[in-house]
Amino acid sequence: MFASQILASLLLAPLALAHYTLEYPTARGFIDEEEVNFCGGFAQPSSTRTSFPLSGNAPVRWDSHHAIGTVGIYISTSTNPSNWSDFSTTMAKSWFTGPNGAACTNIDMSKLNMNLTNGSLVTIQMVANGGDGNLYQCSDLILLSDYTVPSNETCATDVALAANATATATPSLGQSASAKASSTSGGATSAVASASSSAAASAGQKVGVASMGAWVGMGLALVGAGVAVL
Ligand SMILES: *[C@@H]1O[C@H](CO)[C@@H](O)[C@H](O)[C@H]1NC(C)=O
Ligand SMILES: *[C@@H]1O[C@H](CO)[C@@H](O)[C@H](O)[C@H]1NC(C)=O
Ligand SMILES: *[C@@H]1O[C@H](CO)[C@@H](O)[C@H](O)[C@H]1NC(C)=O
Ligand SMILES: *[C@@H]1O[C@H](CO)[C@@H](O)[C@H](O)[C@H]1NC(C)=O
Ligand SMILES: *[C@@H]1O[C@H](CO)[C@@H](O)[C@H](O)[C@H]1NC(C)=O
Ligand SMILES: [Cu+2]
Protein backbone atom coordinates (compact mmCIF):
# COMPACT_ATOMS: atom_id res chain seq x y z
CA MET A 1 0.00 0.00 0.00
CA PHE A 2 2.78 2.37 0.96
CA ALA A 3 4.70 1.57 -2.20
CA SER A 4 1.62 2.07 -4.33
CA GLN A 5 1.03 5.48 -2.80
CA ILE A 6 4.56 6.57 -3.58
CA LEU A 7 4.16 5.23 -7.07
CA ALA A 8 0.87 7.07 -7.43
CA SER A 9 2.50 10.30 -6.37
CA LEU A 10 5.29 9.84 -8.88
CA LEU A 11 2.93 8.99 -11.69
CA LEU A 12 0.52 11.81 -10.96
CA ALA A 13 3.23 14.43 -10.57
CA PRO A 14 3.31 15.22 -14.32
CA LEU A 15 -0.28 16.52 -14.02
CA ALA A 16 1.09 19.66 -12.47
CA LEU A 17 3.93 20.25 -14.86
CA ALA A 18 3.65 23.55 -16.68
CA HIS A 19 -0.12 24.03 -16.91
CA TYR A 20 0.70 26.98 -19.17
CA THR A 21 3.33 29.64 -19.47
CA LEU A 22 2.77 33.26 -20.48
CA GLU A 23 5.56 33.90 -22.95
CA TYR A 24 4.89 37.46 -24.09
CA PRO A 25 4.75 40.05 -22.70
CA THR A 26 7.15 38.91 -19.99
CA ALA A 27 5.39 37.27 -17.05
CA ARG A 28 6.18 38.12 -13.44
CA GLY A 29 7.39 34.58 -13.12
CA PHE A 30 6.31 31.00 -13.32
CA ILE A 31 6.16 28.46 -10.53
CA ASP A 32 4.05 25.54 -11.58
CA GLU A 33 2.35 24.78 -8.27
CA GLU A 34 1.79 28.49 -7.58
CA GLU A 35 -0.07 29.10 -10.82
CA VAL A 36 -3.38 28.44 -9.06
CA ASN A 37 -2.89 31.65 -7.08
CA PHE A 38 -3.51 35.32 -7.92
CA CYS A 39 -0.83 36.44 -10.40
CA GLY A 40 0.61 32.94 -10.31
CA GLY A 41 1.78 33.52 -6.75
CA PHE A 42 3.88 36.58 -7.59
CA ALA A 43 2.54 39.33 -5.36
CA GLN A 44 4.93 42.09 -6.38
CA PRO A 45 5.04 43.87 -9.74
CA SER A 46 8.11 43.17 -11.85
CA SER A 47 10.92 45.62 -11.17
CA THR A 48 11.18 46.19 -14.91
CA ARG A 49 7.92 46.73 -16.76
CA THR A 50 7.59 45.47 -20.30
CA SER A 51 6.94 48.17 -22.87
CA PHE A 52 3.71 47.54 -24.75
CA PRO A 53 1.97 49.52 -27.47
CA LEU A 54 -0.68 51.98 -26.30
CA SER A 55 -2.54 51.57 -29.56
CA GLY A 56 -2.81 49.06 -32.34
CA ASN A 57 -2.90 45.31 -32.11
CA ALA A 58 -0.17 43.90 -29.89
CA PRO A 59 0.33 40.23 -29.07
CA VAL A 60 -0.10 38.17 -25.96
CA ARG A 61 1.52 34.77 -26.45
CA TRP A 62 1.42 31.67 -24.27
CA ASP A 63 2.01 27.93 -24.33
CA SER A 64 -0.69 25.70 -22.90
CA HIS A 65 -0.13 22.14 -21.86
CA HIS A 66 -3.84 21.42 -21.70
CA ALA A 67 -5.96 19.98 -24.47
CA ILE A 68 -8.07 23.09 -24.72
CA GLY A 69 -9.02 25.68 -22.17
CA THR A 70 -11.07 28.75 -21.41
CA VAL A 71 -8.90 31.84 -21.52
CA GLY A 72 -9.50 35.46 -20.55
CA ILE A 73 -7.27 38.45 -19.88
CA TYR A 74 -7.96 41.08 -17.23
CA ILE A 75 -6.32 44.47 -16.82
CA SER A 76 -5.59 46.68 -13.83
CA THR A 77 -4.54 50.30 -13.78
CA SER A 78 -3.29 49.90 -10.21
CA THR A 79 0.51 50.03 -10.01
CA ASN A 80 0.35 47.20 -7.47
CA PRO A 81 -2.86 45.22 -7.86
CA SER A 82 -3.32 42.95 -4.89
CA ASN A 83 -6.75 41.46 -5.42
CA TRP A 84 -9.48 41.21 -8.04
CA SER A 85 -11.09 44.46 -6.99
CA ASP A 86 -7.97 46.17 -8.34
CA PHE A 87 -8.77 44.78 -11.79
CA SER A 88 -11.16 46.41 -14.18
CA THR A 89 -14.42 44.70 -14.98
CA THR A 90 -13.56 45.60 -18.55
CA MET A 91 -11.51 42.70 -19.78
CA ALA A 92 -8.48 43.28 -21.97
CA LYS A 93 -9.66 40.15 -23.78
CA SER A 94 -13.02 38.53 -23.19
CA TRP A 95 -13.29 34.82 -22.55
CA PHE A 96 -12.57 32.50 -25.43
CA THR A 97 -11.59 28.88 -25.91
CA GLY A 98 -7.89 28.44 -26.57
CA PRO A 99 -6.11 25.44 -28.04
CA ASN A 100 -3.41 23.16 -26.74
CA GLY A 101 0.14 24.32 -27.32
CA ALA A 102 1.57 27.64 -28.41
CA ALA A 103 -1.05 30.31 -29.10
CA CYS A 104 -1.52 34.05 -29.20
CA THR A 105 -4.14 36.76 -29.30
CA ASN A 106 -4.01 40.49 -29.95
CA ILE A 107 -4.98 43.34 -27.66
CA ASP A 108 -5.51 46.95 -28.66
CA MET A 109 -5.21 48.86 -25.40
CA SER A 110 -6.57 52.07 -26.92
CA LYS A 111 -9.88 50.34 -27.67
CA LEU A 112 -10.64 49.36 -24.08
CA ASN A 113 -12.17 52.76 -23.25
CA MET A 114 -10.09 52.95 -20.09
CA ASN A 115 -8.52 56.36 -20.73
CA LEU A 116 -5.11 54.80 -21.04
CA THR A 117 -2.44 57.24 -22.13
CA ASN A 118 1.22 57.27 -23.06
CA GLY A 119 3.13 56.11 -19.98
CA SER A 120 0.17 54.38 -18.31
CA LEU A 121 1.26 51.60 -15.96
CA VAL A 122 -1.00 48.57 -16.19
CA THR A 123 -0.93 44.92 -15.24
CA ILE A 124 -2.56 42.24 -17.29
CA GLN A 125 -3.64 39.02 -15.64
CA MET A 126 -4.28 36.02 -17.84
CA VAL A 127 -6.68 33.38 -16.56
CA ALA A 128 -6.70 29.97 -18.20
CA ASN A 129 -8.75 26.98 -17.21
CA GLY A 130 -8.01 23.76 -19.00
CA GLY A 131 -10.06 21.56 -16.72
CA ASP A 132 -7.97 21.62 -13.55
CA GLY A 133 -9.12 24.98 -12.30
CA ASN A 134 -8.11 28.58 -12.87
CA LEU A 135 -4.45 29.29 -13.47
CA TYR A 136 -3.06 32.80 -13.35
CA GLN A 137 -0.17 34.71 -14.85
CA CYS A 138 0.54 38.44 -14.62
CA SER A 139 2.62 40.82 -16.67
CA ASP A 140 3.45 44.39 -15.69
CA LEU A 141 3.43 46.84 -18.56
CA ILE A 142 4.15 50.43 -19.44
CA LEU A 143 2.02 51.55 -22.37
CA LEU A 144 3.85 53.67 -24.90
CA SER A 145 2.46 55.50 -27.89
CA ASP A 146 5.70 55.15 -29.82
CA TYR A 147 6.56 51.54 -29.08
CA THR A 148 6.64 48.71 -31.60
CA VAL A 149 6.85 45.13 -30.37
CA PRO A 150 9.89 43.07 -31.46
CA SER A 151 9.47 42.03 -35.08
CA ASN A 152 9.29 38.34 -34.20
CA GLU A 153 6.40 38.96 -31.79
CA THR A 154 3.52 39.25 -34.17
CA CYS A 155 0.29 37.33 -33.80
CA ALA A 156 -0.91 36.51 -37.27
CA THR A 157 -3.22 33.74 -36.09
CA ASP A 158 -5.26 35.19 -33.25
CA VAL A 159 -6.85 32.14 -31.64
CA ALA A 160 -9.57 34.28 -30.04
CA LEU A 161 -10.85 34.99 -33.55
CA ALA A 162 -10.98 31.34 -34.60
CA ALA A 163 -14.36 29.92 -35.53
CA ASN A 164 -14.09 27.41 -32.70
CA ALA A 165 -13.06 30.00 -30.07
CA THR A 166 -16.46 30.68 -28.54
CA ALA A 167 -16.28 30.21 -24.79
CA THR A 168 -19.03 27.90 -23.61
CA ALA A 169 -18.42 28.59 -19.93
CA THR A 170 -16.65 31.37 -18.12
CA PRO A 171 -14.60 30.43 -15.08
CA SER A 172 -15.51 32.23 -11.90
CA LEU A 173 -12.57 34.06 -10.41
CA GLY A 174 -11.11 32.89 -7.17
CA GLN A 175 -11.94 29.30 -7.95
CA SER A 176 -9.15 27.16 -6.69
CA ALA A 177 -7.57 24.69 -9.02
CA SER A 178 -7.22 21.01 -8.43
CA ALA A 179 -3.51 21.21 -9.08
CA LYS A 180 -3.62 19.73 -5.59
CA ALA A 181 -4.16 16.51 -7.50
CA SER A 182 -0.41 16.40 -7.89
CA SER A 183 0.22 16.94 -4.20
CA THR A 184 2.66 14.32 -3.09
CA SER A 185 0.87 13.99 0.24
CA GLY A 186 -2.16 12.45 -1.39
CA GLY A 187 -2.41 9.08 -3.00
CA ALA A 188 -4.29 8.11 -6.11
CA THR A 189 -7.65 8.23 -4.33
CA SER A 190 -7.32 11.79 -3.13
CA ALA A 191 -6.08 12.82 -6.54
CA VAL A 192 -9.24 11.45 -8.09
CA ALA A 193 -11.41 13.16 -5.48
CA SER A 194 -9.63 16.41 -6.08
CA ALA A 195 -10.02 16.15 -9.82
CA SER A 196 -13.73 15.44 -9.59
CA SER A 197 -14.41 18.25 -7.13
CA SER A 198 -12.75 20.51 -9.66
CA ALA A 199 -15.08 19.06 -12.27
CA ALA A 200 -18.07 19.97 -10.16
CA ALA A 201 -16.73 23.45 -9.53
CA SER A 202 -16.10 24.19 -13.18
CA ALA A 203 -19.32 23.18 -14.82
CA GLY A 204 -19.17 23.28 -18.58
CA GLN A 205 -15.51 22.49 -19.07
CA LYS A 206 -16.29 18.96 -19.95
CA VAL A 207 -13.55 18.41 -22.49
CA GLY A 208 -10.83 19.58 -20.14
CA VAL A 209 -12.27 17.55 -17.33
CA ALA A 210 -12.52 14.50 -19.54
CA SER A 211 -8.88 14.80 -20.50
CA MET A 212 -7.97 15.30 -16.86
CA GLY A 213 -9.93 12.14 -16.06
CA ALA A 214 -8.04 10.33 -18.78
CA TRP A 215 -4.73 11.34 -17.25
CA VAL A 216 -5.83 10.28 -13.80
CA GLY A 217 -7.19 7.06 -15.23
CA MET A 218 -3.95 6.36 -17.01
CA GLY A 219 -2.05 7.08 -13.81
CA LEU A 220 -4.25 4.63 -11.94
CA ALA A 221 -3.76 2.00 -14.64
CA LEU A 222 -0.02 2.45 -14.38
CA VAL A 223 -0.25 2.32 -10.61
CA GLY A 224 -2.13 -0.95 -10.96
CA ALA A 225 0.55 -2.30 -13.27
CA GLY A 226 3.27 -1.07 -10.91
CA VAL A 227 1.65 -2.72 -7.92
CA ALA A 228 1.36 -5.95 -9.86
CA VAL A 229 5.07 -5.80 -10.61
CA LEU A 230 5.94 -4.98 -7.00
C1 LIG B 1 -7.85 44.97 -2.38
O1 LIG B 1 -6.63 45.68 -2.40
C2 LIG B 1 -6.77 47.09 -2.12
C3 LIG B 1 -5.39 47.69 -2.24
O2 LIG B 1 -4.85 47.47 -3.47
C4 LIG B 1 -7.35 47.26 -0.74
O3 LIG B 1 -7.58 48.64 -0.52
C5 LIG B 1 -8.67 46.51 -0.61
O4 LIG B 1 -9.10 46.56 0.71
C6 LIG B 1 -8.49 45.06 -1.03
N1 LIG B 1 -9.80 44.44 -1.06
C7 LIG B 1 -10.01 43.22 -0.59
C8 LIG B 1 -11.39 42.70 -0.74
O5 LIG B 1 -9.13 42.55 -0.07
C1 LIG C 1 -9.74 25.05 -33.43
O1 LIG C 1 -9.48 24.39 -34.64
C2 LIG C 1 -8.10 24.32 -34.99
C3 LIG C 1 -7.98 23.77 -36.38
O2 LIG C 1 -8.65 22.54 -36.44
C4 LIG C 1 -7.38 23.48 -33.95
O3 LIG C 1 -6.01 23.41 -34.22
C5 LIG C 1 -7.56 24.13 -32.58
O4 LIG C 1 -7.00 23.33 -31.58
C6 LIG C 1 -9.04 24.34 -32.28
N1 LIG C 1 -9.16 25.13 -31.06
C7 LIG C 1 -9.99 24.78 -30.10
C8 LIG C 1 -10.02 25.73 -28.96
O5 LIG C 1 -10.68 23.78 -30.13
C1 LIG D 1 -12.42 58.42 -18.78
O1 LIG D 1 -12.38 59.82 -18.71
C2 LIG D 1 -13.67 60.40 -18.78
C3 LIG D 1 -13.51 61.91 -18.84
O2 LIG D 1 -12.60 62.34 -17.85
C4 LIG D 1 -14.49 59.95 -17.58
O3 LIG D 1 -15.80 60.48 -17.65
C5 LIG D 1 -14.58 58.43 -17.61
O4 LIG D 1 -15.23 57.98 -16.44
C6 LIG D 1 -13.21 57.81 -17.66
N1 LIG D 1 -13.34 56.38 -17.84
C7 LIG D 1 -12.63 55.52 -17.13
C8 LIG D 1 -12.85 54.08 -17.46
O5 LIG D 1 -11.80 55.85 -16.29
C1 LIG E 1 5.64 58.57 -24.08
O1 LIG E 1 6.14 58.35 -22.78
C2 LIG E 1 7.51 57.97 -22.80
C3 LIG E 1 7.89 57.55 -21.40
O2 LIG E 1 7.38 58.43 -20.46
C4 LIG E 1 8.33 59.14 -23.33
O3 LIG E 1 9.70 58.79 -23.35
C5 LIG E 1 7.85 59.46 -24.73
O4 LIG E 1 8.54 60.63 -25.20
C6 LIG E 1 6.38 59.72 -24.75
N1 LIG E 1 5.94 59.83 -26.13
C7 LIG E 1 5.09 60.76 -26.54
C8 LIG E 1 4.72 60.73 -27.98
O5 LIG E 1 4.63 61.59 -25.76
C1 LIG F 1 11.58 36.51 -30.30
O1 LIG F 1 12.94 36.71 -29.97
C2 LIG F 1 13.21 36.69 -28.57
C3 LIG F 1 14.65 37.06 -28.38
O2 LIG F 1 15.47 36.26 -29.16
C4 LIG F 1 12.86 35.30 -28.01
O3 LIG F 1 13.08 35.28 -26.62
C5 LIG F 1 11.41 35.02 -28.30
O4 LIG F 1 11.09 33.70 -27.89
C6 LIG F 1 11.10 35.16 -29.80
N1 LIG F 1 9.67 35.04 -30.00
C7 LIG F 1 9.17 34.15 -30.84
C8 LIG F 1 7.69 34.22 -31.03
O5 LIG F 1 9.81 33.31 -31.40
CU1 LIG G 1 -2.83 22.04 -15.42
Tags for this model:
2 domains, 27% strand, six-stranded mixed β-sheet, disordered C terminus, Coagulation Factor XIII, Chain A, domain 1, binds 2-acetamido-2-deoxy-beta-D-glucopyranose, 230 residues, 6 strands, alpha+beta, binds copper (II) ion
Notes on the protein architecture:
- The protein has about 230 residues and is α+β, with helices and mostly antiparallel strands.
- The protein has two domains: about 1-10 and about 175-230; about 20-160, Coagulation Factor XIII, Chain A, domain 1 (Distorted Sandwich), CATH 2.70.50.
- Helix content is about 20%, strand content about 25%.
- The protein has helices at about 1-10, 190-200, 205-230; strands at about 20-25, 50-55, 60-75, 95-105, 120-130, 135-145.
- Strands 1, 2, 3, 4, 5 and 6 form a six-stranded mixed sheet that branches.
- Strand 5 and strand 6 (about 135-145) form a beta hairpin.
- Helix 1 crosses helix 3.
- The N and C termini lie close together (about 10 Å).
- Bound molecules: 2-acetamido-2-deoxy-beta-D-glucopyranose (NAG) (5 copies) and copper (II) ion.
- One 2-acetamido-2-deoxy-beta-D-glucopyranose binds near residues 150, 152 and 153.
Task: Please give the structural blueprint.
Elements lengths: L1 H11 L7 E5 L25 E4 L4 E19 L16 E15 L13 E9 L4 E11 L43 H14 L4 H24 L1
Helix pairs in contact: 1-3, 2-3
